[in-house]
Design brief:
By secondary structure, this protein is an alpha+beta fold. The chain folds into 2 domains: 28-37 and 49-194, no CATH class; 195-253, no CATH class. 43% of the residues lie in helices and 10% in strands. It has 8 helices and 7 strands, in the order H-E-E-H-H-H-H-H-H-H-E-E-E-E-E. The chain has a 5-stranded mixed beta sheet, with no helix packed on it. Strand 5 and strand 6 (237-241) form a beta hairpin. The longest helix has 25 residues, at 2-26. The N and C termini lie far apart (73 Å).
Amino acid sequence: MRGEVRLLRLAFLLLASAAFAADTQVLVDRVGITGFVQLEAESFQKLTPRQQALAYWLTQASIAIDPIYYDQNSIFGLRQKRLLEEIMLRHPGGKISDFAKLFWANRGNHNDMTAQKFVPEFSFDELKTAAHNALKAGGFKGTPYGTPAIRNDADLDRELEALKASLFDPNFQPMTTAKSPQGKLDILQASANNFYHNVSMADLKDFKDAHPLNSRLVKNACVNDSAGATCAVGPPCTKAMYGGSSPSGAAKS
């Protein structure tokens, strides 16, 4: 028995030593308990040209679809992403930089492992000052990710106010998926994820989605949709973006 214990201790020490050695080689940054590592694909050089080309284009595809993760995790995700990126491009450093790194690592401000929301260690006024400095430095050009246009200080102030609760209020959409919602909200209304918008569990009582893995459910006044959305008769209605089927008695727009 003692021999087995010694072997287990030795194995643990060897693993811990190996982990420490690896950590010192690949760990490039740390924010709190979150470490950022750099991984090198040395075997890439051994691939054939055709395999290297495939790996390259797969990498480009993963970069191209990256914004989708932010959009799926929160209706505010892409707007938060644009705000932080504009600040970081012009005034990196400090607590905003630390928060931005965690935001990028988790594809939003909900922990990727626990689904719990994390809030900044800086104030709203500090964020506002940094954002306006970025605007003065030539930031916020264009409308990336389909975000609202920001042409002047007034536009920026409106955007900051619209994002304030989503960034700073720990009780506002505290979980990506709220399995135990608080108050009168149900699981859909309390969750931060963007698969449902303005939809309650009661709305879905008789709803059958033809494409549950390829749709975003929205309840609003029905309009003709180029994506071929399906709408129930009469406003408000439930619409399945990118496809789906509505309750019995529904009409297709």
